Amino acid sequence: MSRSVDVSTNERAYFIEGLKAGIRLNGRRFDEIRYPHNIHLSKEEYGYVELEWGKNKISVRVSSYIRKPFEDRPFEGIFNINCEINSMASAKFENGKNSDEEVLISRIIEKSIRRSNSLDLESLCIIAGEKVWNITVDLNFLNYDGNFIDIGCFGVMLALQHFKKPDISIINGGEDIIVHDINEREPQPLSILHVPVCLTYCFYNITNQQEVNIKGESTSDDIYLLDCDYKEDLLKSGSIIITLNKNREIIQLSKNGGIPIDASLLVDLALGSIKVVDELTDLMKKLIKDHEQQRFDELNLKLLQVGADR
Amino acid sequence: MTTELKQVSFPPEVLARIVPEVSLQRHLSIGLRPNLRNFLEFKPIEIASHANNITTTNDNVFGSSIVKSGNSTIVTTVTLGVVENTNSSTSTFNNNNNNNNNNNNNLTNDQFTSIYPVIDIQRGRSGAPSDEEMILSQNLYETILHSRLISKAALKINHCGLAIKETDINSDKDNIQIFYPDIHPQVFVNLPSSSSTLKKSYSFVIFCHVKVFSKISTIFDLCYSSIIDALHDLKLPRVYITDFSSTKISVKSRNSNTRGLVGVSKSSLNIDLNNELYYPLELSSEGGISCNFGAIKTVKNKQEDEDITMENEEVVELLADLEGEAEESTILSRISIIVDGNEKIKRLSLINGDINSEISLDILQRAIDVAKLRSRND
Amino acid sequence: MTFKVRTSVLDNSDGSAELTTSDVKLIVSITGPIEPKPRQELPNVASLEIVVRPAVGLSTTREKVLEDKLRGMLQAVIVRHLYPRQLIQIIVQIQATPLSKHQGGAYSNHRDEVEYSNVELNAAINGCYFALVDAGIALYSSFASTCISITKPHEINDNQEYIIQPTLDQLNNSSSHHIICFSIEDKKATKLLLIDSLGEFTEEELFTVISKGVEQTELLHENYQRKYISDKIHNDYIWKS
Predict the structure, then answer these.
(1) pTM value?
(2) Are B323 and B294 in contact, with CB atoms under 8 Å apart?
(3) Which residue, of A223, B337, B374, C201, is most buried by count of CB atoms within 10 Å of its CB?
(4) ipTM of predicted assembly, 2 dp
(5) Number of domains chain A is built from
(6) Mean of the pLDDT values across residues B355-374?
(7) What is the rounded distance in angstroms from the CA atom of residue B120 to the CA atom of residue A167?
(8) Helix, strand or coil for residue B88?
(9) Distance of CA A15 to the CA centre of its chain
(10) Distance, C-alpha A286 to centroid of its chain
(11) Does A1 map to a domain?
């Protein structure tokens, strides 16, 4: 496997011609994503998820422990996301060295999930100023096939919904706490306020005359593709990452250089994304629900249930 | 035109720089090591315990040790930290299990703890720790943890004192007196037990700062003996609480940028520097002596029947206490053993990095025997 | 004992293997031989770049030690002179450990729990074997590793208990634990590659453990390695017949 990732001029021309004719080399429509598949929600461990998305492969783990909160935020738990990419994913990522692309990926995921307050930090407080939960998400990229941001965000949100932390009792009038063993009391899920979904659009300039665009003339020739694969990502001339949730709110929006795009296109993209966002959110919900049901059946939790169904 | 090819020859010290493996082999073939020691001879170690005044002149150092071996000097200083015990981690469910174990008088590994070593090899520049330093400190950490040297109980602070401020009316000066529940029980009878900090339990954490000067050999052994010596020297101080500082801290809210002030009565923990009250750390087992060995294949020429056949005999030789560049870069099959006075092995790490000079079971046996002998002598 | 292997799981690596044992899960990827960076280049042999990534959190000194031990062992089994001035990248991503599975992954208390990083080393060695074979890197011999712990007798009359592939609880109650790795030629364990023992034990116990190690690594080779490799070759050459 070589480190270099160059695309020949012929390949590029072929690809652009394809786009002109409305064809993507992978056979997808321009606004079609690769749906996640081979999703494995661990039955042994809460908050461990493996999934594939095209040829992308990731594993996500959520873990928790109790610590003292930061001095200036005594009522809030602590939440962080680790995401380091090493050369396992692709030889283009160097070990122990943060490339610009890697920084961008982790910043956007951080911005979409952590800074949008999708995890309710105040619910992680146990005793104000003394004990709070620290939730850590480890996002491991195993195989790269373009678009790590969307898949990373999906994986983290799925794992957060899968995770459960042990139940806690406060004793001695707030002096001490008991962390209940998971076999003693059913652990509690995290309180998630909203589910952000990242979508990355890549832009291609098919007229091949960049000057025209910069002068601000018609940009209707521009083509955008949703969820690029490895090769499409290499050939892109610009991209925009939109994070939305099911409430149709924009969480985050970033456009990092590349060719300029029509401002009105932005609204179209946001509106067009809503359908995909709904689909992905519902998929997560369904996966979690099915998994819960499976666990419920396997452990015969029905026997422990108190109260009648209404 | 003919050019005559001359044999190039190098003086021994140049040869040792450019082809260390050849130089080493030549030394070994005449039964010598580059450092002029015998194959199984260790370098002498000098331990200057209690003879240094680092502990007495520095208030924050509670134990120290200086170890010398050849040109290398290792200085270990021990400092302490205090952490709150999280008894919250054991739920009732686990407690039952633990009680059962205690009845069997069987200690588990999680009742022991380790030290936090910081290794600093002085080489004339500063910066992030090198891989070698990181590996050394982690190995020391794991070795001490698993050899059950320091129990968590020994580091627990049992009698936390209380400082009481009395304002002397006559002289208008603040007078601070420290009381301990075991020394002044009468004071604590009258004291309202409202102080929440008194109910919490604390433990010491041991940090060992190891400085290595002029390193020329594998230094795990030296660092280990230095740390063990410093731990024997370690005296733990008493700890007291001052309960009279009440401060306001600023609190940020997530949804606005305004900061509010929340009053917190913070009691701070202090270390009592009255060294009459210091007590030694109880070690749960003996430290032992650490030795390292390397194995290398050498060719022994039978020089006697020179003119008939050169009979080359290949032997894997065991070398003790590797030293110098030639040995360190050439010998990849290594053993590191820690044995205590009762012939118990505390750690054994064997890596056959060179498949040709393999450490066989016989050689391992021989290395263990030497290590045992050494731990008995010292 | 569960011991599951899947090879060629990653598309962007030359060789990869996913190993799942009863308490550790990890994935190893091998890229190589590739062109090294100038400072990594060795004139007559291949250089190895080994990275171990932990299951939880960022990599620490613990992973550095694992990398160091793996390197010491792997440089003895890889035929490095076949790839001069080349680089072989070995990445081990640990995905689940006995500690992460403790409490169903819900709760970890860093300070109160004793870590046994050697259990991960054991799995990493075994995982590397399949990944190296998958990548087609030349090896001098097969190798296999096993973990054995010794539990001190509770009563005086009891014998010592030698536990193979101990669980976290068993490790916690053990007086010592050992990782033993042997090279295997013609289905026989031949050379010691690595021993890593921590705890307190006697010489006699050590040699008992080594002889059990011989047994276990041979079993591992016979029951799993041979089977997986022959299945793999069968599948790789399915077009040929």
Answers:
(1) 0.89
(2) no
(3) B337
(4) 0.92
(5) 1
(6) 90
(7) 43
(8) helix
(9) 28
(10) 17
(11) no
